[in-house]
């Protein structure tokens, strides 16, 4: 185990916060951090609204009962926010002073890569060890097979798409469904495969509209009239409405419909997988603080814990493999 000897090697009061975009399972992670911290005799504080709460001194003492009955709830009891002031040294200094007043000497930050960058800078400036937990529905962080919230988001998308498929089938329509994913296509890829989509459009791949048109015409010849296109919001086309415009221009007789799933994908009760990985990651985050494995985020790879330095936390870019794309192509024929 790599121990950072430069930093104070014993934390006694820790803070936990959720930052950036919320994701289902964050509550399960908070619960795990609080209860593991208390088990080890630490004092645990909940910091409200991410880094904003550190700056505004909105910090509450957590007890075991504070996290009762939350494991099944979406959102985050600590609330989440984006905080411009934390981007500046002055803001971070204010935040540090509030932690110091309370004696908080370790932090667990549940959020995405942006939140991890903030934690990394903060910890370097003020010598407060920080541990990250990847809470994002996009599953686009390098070094972990799971992020808290992805499984729930994708299952929510599947449930909605299945319902839309019923009506598509009744009317022989082309349905274009837009799912979340500004930079990463995992939600589109997984929900598209799981619902038998004919075409899946993701930010990581360029897709020429003519190839979609040709594929629809070819399917029409084979009397396959029901066609489901799942597009990630960050696809280069500009999303479902733009795809519909382009298709309507080239196939004026096709009945196309658009559905943008939007924020329903962020909410709802977390799935078993999200609750379990959030609990496991939260538990290990506190163990990291106790054993001096500082300034890492906790990932899971090949079913083992993987600890990645916060400064290496980067969005996974363009990593969707050819294997997935072949599967999509062959299964949707
Ligand atoms: P996410 O964590 O979901 O990727 P953001 O990128 O919006 O979300 O980051 C969340 C917050 O983390 C920001 O509002 C800001 O307060 C903080 N943050 C992000 N990047 C930095 C940075 N380079 N330095 C300091 N704080 C940062």
What do you see in this structure?
Strand 10 and strand 11 form a beta hairpin. The chain has 333 residues and is of the alpha/beta class. The relative contact order is 0.18. It has a seven-stranded mixed beta sheet, sandwiched between helices. It has a four-stranded parallel beta sheet with strand order 7-8-6-9, sandwiched between helices. It is built from ten helices and eleven strands. Helix content is 40%, strand content 17%. The site of adenosine-5'-diphosphate has 17 residues, from helix 4.
User: Radius of gyration over alpha carbons?
Assistant: 22 Å
The span between the termini is 49 Å
Low-confidence stretches: 1-8
Give the strand tally: 11
Q: Give the C-level CATH assignment of the largest domain.
A: Alpha Beta
CATH architecture of the largest domain: 3-Layer(aba) Sandwich
Ligands bound, unique:
adenosine-5'-diphosphate
Helix content: 25-40%
Task: Count up the domains.
Answer: 2
Shape: elongated
The strand order across the widest sheet is 3-2-1-4-5-10-11
Summed up, the helix count is: 10
CATH topology of the largest domain: Rossmann fold
Helices and strands, in N-to-C order?
EHEHEHEHEHEHEHEHEHEEH
| Average predicted local confidence, pLDDT | 92
How many strands, which pairing sense, and closed or not: the largest β-sheet?
Answer: 7 strands, mixed
As a percent range, the share of strand residues is 15-25%
- The secondary-structure class comes to alpha/beta
